[in-house]
Records
---
Amino acid sequence: MISAKAGRLRTHLEKCSQSQLQNNFPKDGLPEILVPFNSSDTTIPPEKRVCHKIIRPKLNDFTIKTSSHQKEILDNQIARLFYACNLPFNLAENDVFKKTISMLRPGYTPPTRKILAGGLLDKTFNEVTTMTASDLEGKDVTLVEDGWSDIHKSPVIAHCVHSGQRSYFLNSVDTGSNKKTATYCTSLAIEASKETTDKFVCKVVAVVTDNEQKNAVNALKVEIG
């Protein structure tokens, strides 16, 4: 009985090509389970002696590795997203945010609220400051001053520097109990001009402001020459 079954199996294998055997299994990365036979059997023609092996997928085929260098790059980019879009840091603790990041990069853990508000914030600030200094060094620039109220209705005066191609945020001042008079705004503009010159090694050649009082204009002319 055993020899008869072996004979039928040999006949079947002789009729089936290798491609026919492989087509019986889905190409989904799972191990191929093939019928073994003695390929050294001299009764089988050489062209029919096909050796099959089980292909086992590696664990790495199902995982995404994130190196320490890649994590640093991803952390920095996520931090810049928070800062550029003025997103609240507690969003980093939100389950939906965490799930979104996990779907985009399985195995990667994004920075926490504390990290975003700490080391990453300092690092990003220093990088942006260095980039701004490199862009503005030796150039003639325009200082722009404007005021508004924040969400708490507190008066704020901000200064930007324009190179002719791009604008760079310089600072914002909470005026507190100070009234936004021409004299006060002029003093802030003069301080901002000095900060621009010292910090970015450039020259302020013009000031844009909505302050039209003559004494303010004259004071600014003296400051910028």
---
Amino acid sequence: MSSRVFWFSRQPSDTTQHSSTSGSPQTFDTPYVWRPSKRPVPLTTVSFKCPECEKLLPSERSLATHKHAVHVLKRYGEEWAPDGARLLGCNDCSRTFAREADLRQHRINRHTTVDVKELGGAAVATVKSSAPENVDFEADTNNGTCATQRLPQQRRKQRLSSIMALQRSVRLSSGYHMPALGLGSGSIDEAPSDEFRTSAEEALRVGYRHIDTAWSYRTEGKIGKAIKSSNVNRSEIFITSKIWPTMAGRVKESVLKSLSDLGTDYLDLLLIHWPFAQKTPAGASPYDQKHMSAENLDRNISRIDTWRAMEALVDEGLVRSIGVSNFNIRMLNELMPKARIQPAVNQIELHPYLPQHELVAFCQKNHIIVVSYGPLGGAFKRPVLRDDPKIQEIAKRLGKTASQVLISWSIQRGVVTIPKSLNPKRIAENFQDFVLPEEDMKTLNNLTNRKRYYAANLLWKIDIFEDEQLKAPLAKI
């Protein structure tokens, strides 16, 4: 008769088994090998059971490693992954593996050709699936091999970034998950209704599950119709909207209007669009941005006043997570000590010409997810970011578009990215995952050109970004 292994956890209900020699119940605190007509022989001192999948492991350390590799990475991505965590993904299907040998054998058995990226001497591939949320993460502890390994910092960051892009989600401080890539809709409110609705439907068909909009964009009604006709469950879609400065004192009214237009009963994320309040001139529409100016600043409504109104909407269940947009470090330091609910997100303009390294580092240190708007630069503003010679060279060498290079650069920094487009082909292209080599990341990080494409501070004469290099007289906020 072949040997069988009995594993027992420390829980009393799991430790009672029948011995074959005596036929009476015996309780063991350790795992044993059962052999006919022989006394049980202990294999190790104790075993630990994973509470989520009931896998048993020989030590607390291996249990922690297993939980991080299998469960934490699957749910939360790079932001909450442990040091050294790694998973390898197959390009042709949604399978992932903990060991290179397993990935290699899988490729031989299941696929004839797989495009694998070589990073740091190890094969790391990304999944080209239209439904990345269904990726089945696995870990293999056979032969004592654990699912995580100690790696140099740069290689570890590369692998974790590829995992983040693979599953396309990060965990917010509120506990909810936010897809790492979304569809932006700013500055396209003048597009024909059918055109933008069709674009939003195409994005949902391709696999986008994150749509960024705002009360002031006038796209919420079009997005609501696209969601309704897409046959995608509302619970699968992450919707962000924002409070325009003219509505800073009428937060609930603004949100109820957004919910009505979107055809939903809650927002996944609500942001303060700009860090100041504005008065609406008599007879003017709060939508009308031409009245945005230093003269119309409303200093009777503070940022914390708006924030507390947003916190109340979380309590009511109308909003799940709240955050800010276009806030600098000083503004965040001012808000966080007074906030009952900490900001989950700071949405800022971010691209290689405006990398904002210091602000990104501050947000990540304080568990605030950075969201990048304008990741491709201004489409019709000079200099055109995508035409930069170094970006073009990288794109040509890797066989990618300049937009794909810029999106990957952003995601690999741990930044949620929301490029916008009305072109179905570009919408699909922007959704493709790949990992930029470390040398190309360094090249983009070190570009010396500096350009803020969305310079609302100069347009409105309000010192939003507190840029000390600007000499123009701007109103303080």
